[in-house]
Amino acid sequence: AKAVASKPRVLLLDEVAAGLTEPEIASMKEVVKRLQPGRAIVWVEHIPFALQGVCGRILVMDKGAKLLDGPFDEVWESDLLQSTYMGM
User: Fold this and answer.
1) Cα–Cα dist 53/58, whole Å
2) 15 Cβ contact list (under 8 Å, min separation 6)
């Protein structure tokens, strides 16, 4: 709340979905959507579905290097993502 009160042009979110239930994550996504107009949001997250439908662009890193970058659905469907993170 303190970060939003100052009306920043850039908002940094670090694992805000950690420890939340699925309904709580859905509520968090709605809050983030309401915060988007007029500002850039950088959201670091390890729960991928928390980003779905909210992020216009997703960047996936592996060992500190960029692995994938693009729209959520495109990145999520990537064979490279599946093999790197899901072992498929």
Assistant:
1) 11
2) 44, 45, 46
CB 17 within 8 Å of CB 25: yes
> How many C-beta atoms lie closer than 10 Å to residue 20's C-beta?
15
Model confidence over 29-61: pLDDT tens digits?
999 999 999 999 999 998 988 999 999 899 999
Question: Residue 8 and residue 80: Cα distance in Å, rounded?
Answer: 35
- The dihedral built from the CA positions of residue 14, 18, 24 and 26, taken in this order, carries a sign that is positive
The pTM of this model reads: 0.81
d(Cα 61, Cα 4) in Å, to the nearest integer?
27
Average pLDDT over all residues of the chain: 92
